[in-house]
Structures
1.
Amino acid sequence: MKTPSTYYSPLAIGAPAPYRDRPVSLERMIHFVPPHIEKMRAKVPDLIRKVDVVLGNLEDAIPADAKTDARAGFIQMAKENDFGSTGLWTRVNCLNSPWFLDDLLEIVPAVGDKLDVIMLPKVEGAWDIHYLDQLLAQLEARAGLTRPIMIHAILETAEGVKNVEQIAAASPRMHGMSLGPADLAASRGMKTTRVGGGHPDYAVLSDAGISSERTAFQQDLWHYTIGKMVDACLSYGIKPFYGPFGDFSDPLACESQFRNAFLMGCLGAWSLHPTQIDIAKKVYSPDPGEVAFAKKILDAMPDGTGAVMIDGKMQDDATWKQAKVIFDLAKLVATKDSELAEVYGL
Ligand code: GLV
Ligand code: MG
């Protein structure tokens, strides 16, 4: 670990200083675009109005023979559009791939001034972040960038999960991380063939002899990892996200997976299909009833101390803090979404 005095020093002469306070931005859905497909690039102006983050995907799901076209397509879509308050991210290829270096060497000089975040797949430990951190500093210095590009890690290997705290702490450039359930399942040797979500066989059976029929209660396969990721992220002031949900034919299961992650502390999820944009928007914008109740708590305890009863429920300093989490998120949503601002009364 670096000493506190060097933690925030730029890693190359001329590189922008790392953020001490990370930018506050609404990132309910990170929408994946395959940038080698012209028809998809043509939808970007419309997407910018609809989503919180547009991500040009260069890694998995892009065929090997389309990797350079995807990189060029991403640079083109970054140049051609004004993203305003919508985030622009890219998911680069992984560090041991033949494409990673050129992804960085081409994208940073061409559109580094517009790029908010680089999503790095298959992060195994802090050393992966340190390498990208240093490389980005050199490229930023050479390109004369004035704003640091942030790093978002995908938590999708057994070793990465083991090292999640060191990854979160690796650099002030860390934006956050996403759970990658598909690669993680493979890396762990899980016996599934899915991209996220539950599994009917991962269940607890009710005791024998209680009723004539025994009930199987399906459990959340991702509970442990999300909990571990949320604790690591929040300890270091970075943001946790749920990743992809692959069954586009099951919006209810997608909503349930997104919601479990939201309740456990995640701030958004990936949208891989247009129908998942609205699911993520619904789930990751706090419920109006919860926002109204949170406001009651905040109003009843203006300095955040003491104990009061509201609707028969005890409130104290700790519930005040929970209320503040929900109310602050509602205020952030309201800055982007005028319809919800009205529903929230903000
Ligand atoms: C995402 O990249 C995943 O592997 O789930
Ligand atoms: Mg993956």
2.
Amino acid sequence: MKRLEGVSIALGVGGGIAAYKAVELLRRLVDEGAHVTPVLTKNALNFVGLTTFRALGSSEPVVSLFEDSSPIPHTKLGQGVDLVVVAPATADILSKFATGACDDALSTILVSTDAKVVLAAAMHKEMWSHPAVMENIETIRRRGFTVVDPEHGRLAGGDVGFGRLAATEVILDAVVGQMATRDLAGYHVVVTVGGTREAIDPVRYIGNRSSGRQGLAIVSELLDRGAHVTAISTIDPALSSSYLEVVRVESAIEMESATRSACKDANALIMCAAVADYRVESPLVNKFKRGSGNLPEIKLVENPDILANVVADSKMYSQNFITIGFAAETENVEANGRAKIVKKGCDILVVNDVSREETRFGSADNEVIILSADGSLKYIPLAPKREVAAGVVDALVERLLSIEFEQ
Ligand code: C5P
């Protein structure tokens, strides 16, 4: 799902060496479904060409207040957008925005809009640490606008320090975060993703057909709703966000230890991973070669039930920890689900029928029943995994709110 579908954005570009990075941001914003109008300062044009922004933007770029047929282009654009993001926001732009000064298209739009504003600061390190700049940023933040801090790194002229424009992903997250429902801001959720692999020898393993797609959709949904997420994953999530910590694991034993330790300071666990129920008791140290004598017998032993163990842990630590399990069933889906939620002791169980072609492991869509320990049931008909993720996260939010209400 595109995270900025239907959102109208003015992308301001200031005159700094990082202006070229605004091209990548423009592309990502458009890819996420936003309608983007680039607004460049005259100084930005010393660093980047208008043609690039014309080619990639959704509307004609704006540079001057006086070339549009409308006599008041700044108010027209300022009123029409949902968000203004400026990257790079130079010391000059921050100063103008803090004091309300406006002498060009970008500064005038910033002062004439009541849309959300995200400013991704970038400048030389001496400028970034100057008290005037610091005070301007304080003023801007106090008024409720977002400033994305620059990173430490290489700057223009070979200097190194704080002042480099934040990564595109971080700016994109700040924009998405402004537009999304942030009902999980301040919550920490642990999600397990993918199928575990149980080693037979250094090159072979016992695995399963889980693709991890549903787990990744849940991670994305949680991030968009403002949660801090720890993903305990057997696959590379290919997602980056300052709110996401990824712990890569392979086996059920590794997943168990990472999950139990991450849950200690979390509000919820969503146990989406397909965990192998059995592992090889003694994996071979060296690769087993063809013709090296009798075929080895693979003796299996039972893996710990991670979900059940976290449920037991959470009863010790806090009454308020929410546990969500998944169950893949091939028959009597609802009845088996009801039995499993009791057996596992979790608060919510998401049950899906993997016998069907459309909802098999690895498919793009899913159809689930969300069962709650209190007996209530919600059915989500066949939908893309991201929509199913939204339903699962809604169930989590409902449960969190009801616990807070009870207290
Ligand atoms: O018992 P079953 O494997 O169907 O339960 C599925 C749920 O339990 C999933 O949430 C899965 O992640 C979790 N599970 C687990 N540890 C295991 C096996 C499954 O946490 N060893």
3.
Amino acid sequence: MRHFTSVHDVEDLNQALDEAFEVKKNPYGFKHLGENKTMVLLFFNSSLRTRLSTQKAAMNLGMNTIVLDVNQGAWKLETERGVIMDGDKPEHLLEAVPVIGSYCDVIGVRSFARFESKQDDYEEKILSQFIQYAGVPVVSMEAATRHPLQSFADHITIEEHKKVDRPKVVLTWAPHPRALPQAVPNSFAEWMQVADYDLVITHPKGYELAPEFVGNAKVEYDQEKAFEGADFIYAKNWASYSEYGQILSTDRSWTVDEEKMALTNNAYFMHCLPVRRNMIVTDGVIESDRSLVIAEAANRVVSAQAVLKRILEDL
Ligand code: AN0
Ligand code: CP
């Protein structure tokens, strides 16, 4: 593997899953791969899990890691080509990216959707410049349209808990006070379809994801109907795609609670975290024995390690 930005970079998903379970069982068994190799983790946005789990995964593989928060201590980066740089940004991405690439063997980058331009976000303007100019493999640690390390960890978690071959997985929108990117739901929907699960997406009208991510999934506007018979409930808030970046609803009747979970096939509850309790999900559901949120977060080390292992093998 050269770069990792989506499920499409994984040639054989079943084989990738097997490798993930192998590194989970034997986390230090591949330490030689990363010897004298350095990973830079670059954050344009906040993170708890991605920062710690990706670093831990790299360390398990014997790599050295350097973490940089671009907005705290580095020069502010201009990302537009051709601008007269007389504003508050002293450095251009076009120099910064190859400079960072010259210090490391792999770059991880987190750069959320900025909601300034739907086109720029959906063309992955920042991530693609990293791929073009870094000179080393690039791993998405959540870009504008996808969060593939999260989706891979979610897939691993479902595989560990499913009781039937093709479980019913429901991706449900839930309310949130801030406008959040579509990266997590896009990436989850895309990944679940390659995994060939029975995927249903439920959300209020106006929250349709981009068609390329909805794919062949069923869209059900009635949340209670969607929950019937579900084996996994995956909650997430996102801002509107059609009214790009807008909050169209904060309707708390969409909060995942005990009554709605009772409609399911004793489903597990999933969320990528961080989660706002009693907006997205009630205390009772997230604290119940059906909640997988900590297991998902723990599997972030596993997904990152499986991806980095493949990249190191192909360096
Ligand atoms: C981010 C998001 O919704 O994309 C990161 C989730 C992993 N969440 C927040 O900004 C709260
Ligand atoms: N789930 C996830 O990516 O969490 P962080 O934003 O804390 O990294």
